[in-house]
Amino acid sequence: MNFLRRRLSDSSFVANLPNGYMMDLQRPDNSTSSPVSPAMERKHPQAPQPSHSSSTGTSIFSSISSAMKQTTQAAAGLIDHSASPTPPLAQKPKILLVIDDAHTDWAKYFQGKKVNGEFDIRVEQAEFSELNLAAYVTGGCMVDMQVMRNGTKVVRSFKPDFVLIRQHAYSMALGEDFRSLIIGLQYGGIHTVNSLYSIYNFCSKPWVFSQLIKIFNSLGPEKFPLVEQTFFPSHKQMVSTFAFFWL
Fold it and tell me: Are 124 and 96 in contact (CB under 8 A)?
């Protein structure tokens, strides 16, 4: 101890000590590790240790916050999805029922055509005799079709969106009265060309002629000439009337 006191009292020895050496000696030593000289500390500076626990917690919190923010914006409609548009869904084609014989292939006339430039047109063609249907108040009209295609019987059921009628719905021939199908299409609210109202009216020629008589009486014979005809409810009344005239 006396030796140290003499050395520290020597001004030349103290002047050669590193800066802060005396201050370090006066500090209380709270560490149990071996002392390290200031010179060694300057040569090997210790890098500050990162706080793994704090950085990990911060990253997790940031991820959760970002996910919650995106979810909230998506629910509010604030996120613009135009950058990655979803592919459009395939539109269901509109069904056109053509009532005509097989001499005219109506499918080729509508091939490649679209309704409003958006919906494809699927053509189903059959005659009145090959059709059956069921109509509902709110369910529209379900059509059953049984046709022969190249010797093969084809059976299909579908709901037509539109009907093109190219056959007479009524004939005096046996089994050629299809007015019930016209009523069923009208019952199901199906749009047609011509209108179902006009098609049903034209099933009876006397009924059509009665409408012409209205126009004849309104415009006069000069503007709307009409061949004069006589109507009888049935052939029996017609025969009895002629017998009365001959008497």
Answer: yes
How far apart CA 33 and CA 30 sit, in angstroms, is 9
Pairwise CA distance, residues 225 & 51, whole Å: 107
Residue with structure tokens 């006396």? Answer: 2
Q: How confident is the model at residue 175 (pLDDT cuts 50, 70, 90)?
A: confident
CA separation for the pair 116, 200 (Å, rounded): 29
Q: How much is the pTM? A: 0.59
Do 113 and 121 contact (CB within 8 A), yes or no? yes
CA distance 78 to 200: 56
My answer on whether omega of the bond before 116 falls inside 30° of 0, hence cis, is no
